[in-house]
C-alpha cells in the first residue's frame, strides 16, 4: 500500500514532466543563457598592495611618526610587519580609477594576509575613513602639509568626523591565513561619489589582542588585495 | 610674458577674416561665422601647442643654464668636507693630510665664486708631544651666528698607539671658532672623553635650522654597548648650553640600524633628526623616550645610505653608498611619511650626502667621485625622473653643498697641490 501512492504521484509527475519537457528545457536554457550573459557582462578588477597610494602607521607612543607599524626592538618602529594592538593602527587607500565609468559595484572584497593572532576572540576592525589625510599623517595629525590639521580625536578616533560612525567590518580571526572581508558597501559609496575615498583604517579595539599582518609595502604587498566585481548599469 | 602673449594673440591663421567678406545672406554669414570659429579654435590649438613647446624649451634652457652658471667647483688640495654659511658669504673646507691649514675659510664674492685665497685658516688643536695630531672629521656653520663647529678626531690607526689613546680621553674633539670681521676670535674646545674618540669616518654633524641642537655621530656609548648618535643643546647664540659645567649629549644607540660608522649625513629638523641606515631612512625623535626611533626600510638597498635634505622642503633623501640608488621620502618636522620613491642613476657611485638645491629649478645634487648628478625635483620634493650629469675633470669629488643665499651649488674636488 505504501508503494502505490508513491508510485502514482511519481507516475503523474513523470507524465507531467513528459508533457511539459519542451517548456522545462526552454526554461533551463533561458536560465543558462541569462546566467552566461550576466557572467559575461560582469568584470572583476583586482587591486594589489603596490597600488596603495596612501598609507600610514599610527601609534599612541610615537605620536608624530607616520610609519609606526611594528617594533624592530623595543622603542624602534619599523614597517617589516603590521603589528596591530590597541593604540596602534593602519591607514591605507586603494585608488579606484581602474573601475570603468557607468558601472554597478556588485561585490568588493578586501583580502588581508593575517600572519598571527593573539588573545581571546581576536577581532579586526575595518573602518571607512571620513576625513582627508595625507603627508604627515600620524597619531596626532591627519596631515601636516601645508598646515598641521589634527584629527578630531587622536589616532583618527573621532566617529563620524575622522572615521565612519560604525565599522564596515568586524572580523573574528581564529587562525592565520588570507582573510576575505566584504567591503562592498564602502566601495559602492566611493564609486557613486556619495563619499570621498579616503581609504580604510584597521584597528584592534579590545585589550589584550594582537593581530599581525604581512607588511603591505614590503614582503606582503602582493597579498594585500581589493577585489571588485562590477557590471554595466 | 611673451609666452602668454603668443597664446592670447594666436597665430596669424587664427586672426578673423575681414568682416566685409562675410556680408551676404544670413546662411552665408552663419557658415562664415562657423568657419571663423573653427579657424579660431584651430589657431588657438596650434598656439597652445606652440606655447607648450616654448614653455618646455624655456624650462629646459633654464635648467641647463642653471647648471652651467650656478655650479661652482671648489678645487682644493687634500679636500674632504665643506660647509657654507647660510647668511654670511663664507665657505669652509676641511682638509686631510696636515696640521697646518687643516681648515681653510674663504670669502665668497658677489657672484658666488670663492675668493682666490683663504680669509682664515685653522690648524689642528695642539696635542702633547708623542701624541698623534687630530684631523678634521666634519665642519658646519651655525645657521645665523658667525660660528664654525669643527669635529676633530683621530683615525683608528692613530688610536691604536697607546699614548694617543690615553691622551684622547682628555683632549676635546669639538671646537667652536667664532669669526669676526677681522678674522678669528677665541676658539674653545669641547667634547672631551672616550665617548667622542671613536676613530671613525665619515662622522658628519648637523645643526637644526632653529639651532637648538647640534647632532654628532660616532659616539662610543661604552664597551659592549655600541655606537650612537648624540644631540648637544645650544644657547641661542650658538654656544654650549652647559649642565653642571658640562656639555653632555642626549644619546641614542643606533647599532641595530647601522653598523659603525654612523655619520653618513643628516637632516636636522625642529623636532627630530633624519639619518640613513642600512635599511633605509630613519628618524630619531630625541624628545620621545618611549619610541624614539623609526625606520622605513627599502627592499632594494644593499649598502648604507648617505642622508640629507633641507627642513623647508617636505622630503628627505638618501643615496646608497658606492652605488646608484637614490631614495626620496616625504617628511614633516623630521618625521617620514608616505611611500618612498626610488631612482637609479646611471653610472653613479655615491660618495657624499646629497645637497638640495632649494631655489627653482630645484634639484637633489648627488655626488659620485667622477661626476655630480642633478636629480630634478618638484615643489613637494618628489623626483620627476629628469637627471643631468656634470662630470668632474681632474680629481675626485668629495662633497657638495648648496647656498640658498647665493643660489650656488658648490662641488668640492680634490686636486694635487
Topology:
The complex is a heterodimer of chains A (233) and B (417).
Chain A: H1 3-19, H2 21-41, E1 43-48, E2 54-59, E3 70-73, E4 76-78, E5 81-84, E6 88-93, E7 103-118, E8 123-128, E9 141-143, E10 149-150, E11 169-172, E12 177-182, H3 184-192, E13 200-203, E14 210-214, E15 225-232
Antiparallel strand pairs in A: 1-15, 2-6, 3-4, 5-14, 6-13, 7-12, 7-14, 7-15, 8-11, 8-13, 9-10
Chain B: H1 2-9, H2 26-70, E1 71-77, E2 79-84, E3 90-95, E4 103-107, E5 120-122, E6 135-141, E7 147-153, H3 156-159, H4 162-168, E8 172-180, E9 183-184, E10 188-192, E11 206-207, E12 213-220, E13 227-233, E14 250-253, E15 266-268, E16 273-276, E17 280-284, E18 293-297, E19 305-308, E20 315-320, E21 325-332, E22 335-344, E23 355-357, E24 363-368, E25 371-377, E26 383-391, E27 397-403, E28 408-415
Parallel strand pairs in B: 1-28
Antiparallel strand pairs in B: 2-3, 3-4, 4-5, 6-7, 7-8, 8-9, 8-10, 11-12, 12-13, 13-14, 15-16, 16-17, 17-18, 19-20, 20-21, 21-22, 23-24, 24-25, 25-26, 27-28
Describe the structure.
The complex is a heterodimer of chains A (233) and B (417). Helix content of chain A is 20%, strand content 36%. Chain A is α+β, with helices and mostly antiparallel strands. Chain A folds into two domains: 1-41; 43-232, Jelly Rolls (Sandwich), CATH 2.60.120. The radius of gyration of chain A is 25 Å and the shape is globular. The model of chain A is unreliable at 1-20 (pLDDT under 50). Chain B has helices at 2-9, 26-70, 156-159, 162-168; strands spanning 71-77, 79-84, 90-95, 103-107, 120-122, 135-141, 147-153, 172-180, 183-184, 188-192, 206-207, 213-220, 227-233, 250-253, 266-268, 273-276, 280-284, 293-297, 305-308, 315-320, 325-332, 335-344, 355-357, 363-368, 371-377, 383-391, 397-403, 408-415. Chain B has 417 residues and is α+β, with helices and mostly antiparallel strands. Chain B is globular. Chain B has two domains: 2-57; 144-415, Methylamine Dehydrogenase, Chain H (7 Propeller). In chain B, strands 6, 7, 8, 9 and 10 form a five-stranded antiparallel β-sheet that branches. Residues 1-34 of chain B have low confidence and may be disordered.
